[in-house]
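Lay summary. Proteins are chains of building blocks that fold into shapes, and those shapes determine what they do. In this project we predict the shape from the chain. Here is one chain we studied, written as its sequence of building blocks.
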Amino acid sequence: MPIDFQDCLVRYSNHGIQFDYPDIWAIEEQAADGDVLITVSGSETCFWTVRIMSSCPPPPQVVESCVTAFEEEYEDAEVEQIEGKLAEMPAVARHVTFFCMDLMNAANLRSVRTSEFTLLVWWQGTHHELAENQPILDHLTHSLRSQQLLD
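And here is the predicted shape, written in a compact code that computers can read:
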């Protein structure tokens, strides 16, 4: 019987953002070149990452750069434009499917710009992992907030 992740949520709050994640998942924070990368990972290869970019690049540029990287790495990458929100704002969003090591994978990219930074959320997992972890990834994405909008 799967664990109900809602029973083990904790709040991350730092670098001008906050989100809720299950405490049974690992969290790692890295900083480089003025950006902050926070990754929350579960079992196997499934992960959710938020990148905080202080240089405020335009969200379409950020997402298209990621899409280009997927298309260069995986010749079978299929990209779908989707609608979505991030930090309660309309986001530039794409859904990418691709095969890696004979496994079907999916990735979701969303980006928005605030007055202080640009956010990029990227989650990824294999098809079989997403069957169980999709609700967690969705919750992480939907719970992300910019502190400036909360103040």
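What the prediction tells us: The first helix runs from residue 59 to 73.
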